[in-house]
Fold each of these.
Amino acid sequence: MKNTKWFKDAVIYQIYPRSFKDSNDDGMGDIKGIISKLDYLKNLGINCVWLSPVYESPNRDNGYDISDYYSIQKMFGTMDDFKLMLSEMHKRGIRLIMDLVMNHTSDQHPWFKSALNDVNSPYRDYYIFRKGKGKKEPNNWTGFFGGKAWEYTPNTDSYYLHLFTKEQPDLNWDNPKVREEFIKVIRFWCDLGVDGFRCDVINIISKDQRFLNQKGWALLKGGKYFINGPHLHEYLNQINKEALSHYDSMTVGETVFSNMDDMKKLTGEDRDELSMVFNFDHTSTDCFFGVKWLMRKFSLTRWKKALGKYQVGLQDIGWNSLFYENHDQRRSVGRFNTDGKEYREISAKMLATSVYFLKGTPFIYEGQELGMTNSDITDMKDYQDVETFNIYKTARELHLPKSYLKKAIPNGARDNARTPMQWDDSEYAGFSNHQPWLKVNANKSFINVKESISNPSSIYHYYQKLIKVRQEEKLVKDGIYEDLLPKSKKIYAYLRKGKDESLLVLANYSKDTIRLNLKEVNKPHKVLLNNYSEFSSDKLLPYQGIVLKIHNK
Ligand code: TEU
């Protein structure tokens, strides 16, 4: 089937299923819950959903540890529920992309169970088992959640590689059978009508087979040998050719520590690998070395540079994703220079304005459209995320001071973004009638869907409008990006240039009123979007965000 590139017109909403809506009052979100909220999503204006994993899983990492790629996890519902959800989505003009974790499986997957203790198992070579060096691991690689990336298995006196928890063994993509398995998995879901995939940590699937030690200082040791590894592009091309290209599907790859060269290859329109990728350069502008535990003051110039780099670099070559929240990131309220208090709503609208008029496909994470905030958990025991526990343990082993952890954990915990969706102000925020799996934020009393819908100046209604404007303006898709004030520490001003007309996007990332002196503003223009009711061409109000359509002459 011809690929129609519908993803360029998509506005994608990410659902984290366990936190979205609980239909059977067990405290856990589920598929029937999602079905009951499809009209809400339709009214927001989105036309595609990215669903975090709902496959069978022991949930060591909330579903990112899959034990059966062909079935739906019972706590989320049944395959029939899934099919109903898909058809109810399609009925409303909403497409569905699934989250596919291909780098690793759960240790409870039958492949791994068979491989673990039997060197002759046909599945042994699906994973990466190696002999140790004396009494030590095969090499010095470390994992994303802290600690060593190898686990010793006494029965066969060997180690297996796991770049996440030890319950998430890495697959061996150099084994053609592993690639065949995923070609089958992709075909299975596409045959059911699924419209594409978000491919988890896809740029680490190909490991340099020499398994060398990484010398010198690095927080993630070994990265040099598995990030954008030797056969990455070849394997993705095969998956595309043998599975994806047979459907009108899209893919977005999650790429960690990506670089321009690989981004061009991964998303290049003439290369048949992925439709687009998520990179984290911009969300890493408030930390050192791309590691969120190493906190650093946000800088707008770094932010603009990170976003702009791919706008320019992929122009006419590939396609960008546009996002600043997801289930791994802390909430954007109070982040990226926005305000968590007086200007919470205004600054959230500004942020959306300045990012979603870039070139690419917007992704909105559940609750972002309400300005939901970080979790208000204060007690370690209320956290649920395995990453938080592992990092806490590693930090204690390294004797890092408690005062550091007191700041770093509430800042970096992924549960910040995973608290139950706030539908109303009732005890469990309308998410459930039962105590949810993760603590509801007390600010559900005023940050919730019910309030947002009834309040015409809410973030929710602004998002509705933003999506509409975006969909109506061809320049959003085609206009050439130009940063007008790259050095400004408070203003993000850019053009999306067309032949006769252009879009001018202005955003004030500060609490100050800022004088403007831009000749573009004085050209004949029409205001398409504004988070204030007024606009004057010589200044921007605190956190003002605005989109103008201007005549080029
Ligand atoms: O995330 C990959 C990833 O790199 C993040 O785990 C990141 O290192 C971490 O969130 C930093 O805090 C993907 C999924 O999005 C994540 O939820 C999974 O835990 C992970 O892969 C393993 O599948």
Amino acid sequence: MSARSVHITTFGCQMNEHDSERMLGMLDALGYAPTEDRDAADLILFNTCSIREKADDRFVAHLRQAAAVKRRRPETLIGVGGCWAQSVKDQVFRQFPFVDVAFGPGQVHKLAEFLTSDSLTAQGFFEFEGFTGHLPARRARDVQGWVQISAGCNQRCSYCIVPSTRGREVSRPLEELVDEVRGLVADGVREVTLLGQNVNSWGVRLRPHPSTFATLLRELDAIEGLDRIRYTSPHPQDMKEDVVLAHAECPSVCEHVHLPLQAGSSRILKLMRRTYTREHFLDRVALIREHVPDCAITTDIIVGFPGETEADFQETLEVVDEVGFDGAFTFIFSPRRDTEAALMEDDVPHEVKVARMERLVELVQRRAHERAQRFVGRTLEVLVEGPSRHDPSRMRGRCRHNKVVNFEGLAVPGELVPVEITGATSQTLTGELSLVARAAAF
Ligand code: 5AD
Ligand code: SF4
């Protein structure tokens, strides 16, 4: 097979990054090597996201560049996968006639079918089939792996496009997941991140053997050689005591929970159809802190939801202040097609939304900065990722709390090393490799 090259651009969430790794793994088997050079690639792929409008706009600009490449080299193939492709379906070809293949998030394996078929005329694949088959992933990092435990979402958050792009929730069977993680560990993986739109509702509707997310955590924790388990994202409604206890009792489950708040006002939460109140959210945070006292808690927050008053927004600020998140992703509400919230009357002027966002970010950062000081003077276990982005003379990795740690000292990517923390900002920790702790460990 002649060597061919693929250039892939990924937008959106970790689920998409994982799907992209699987696409590259599958393409590897078909003789496509990844390239950084889009202009020279035989296959230009986009793995798209539609969670917010901005992602759409950025993607369209990229797609136009790909079209220019195809004008110069007409044999270049252009593929568009992921949520945005799913949300517009066959319109992709009408809007962008130069696209050769388009497929939804469930159809990554169809890309292989397309590339190996005799006729490369434009085709789209948008059925929900649950899982993307069992594709080998081409991992970006040797020791970190992603595992998709469920697809789709049964919630109906009024702002969210996911239920219409990724369909109803389907969980993968327990044994299959345990086998997959065992295989990853045998392959050198030390940290896995379990992915799903609502990870902690995993298993409940599995037939013939219903299960629970807490059981899954315990089964995976028992795998010899697996050092770290992460998961994203749980839903506050399904964050029950059994999950928190499994989290507390399983040594490999990291001290970090990403628990999306979205809004601090129960009135707005109701309009968002989030199915919990401000009090319930605070109660879940208290439960986590009771059993996992040092747990880092991060969140997602949307500002400027239709009808959000200054008083509602104040409630969001209050919750942020009270919880003291270790970090937060903050978003200005963006109406998405086919969602209930897109039809709601939005009377909050854009400037007000932007001003609220600034106030929110300021508070999030101040609290995250304060929270991070608790690490200074401690020695944390860091999984080394590579050289630091800003200063290549230092190394970069992540601690179990999911903070980036930049540190001085010799270490190899993939190693778990003790780092003495000397400084902390809202985003990153700095430190030095602890030779004493390292020597003691051997
Ligand atoms: N507008 C703004 N933010 C959104 N998110 C999801 N949909 C929207 C939207 N329509 C945010 C939520 C979610 C995160 C992944 O993206 O906070 O948790
Ligand atoms: Fe969207 Fe809500 Fe499902 Fe998350 S839980 S994917 S926000 S519908």
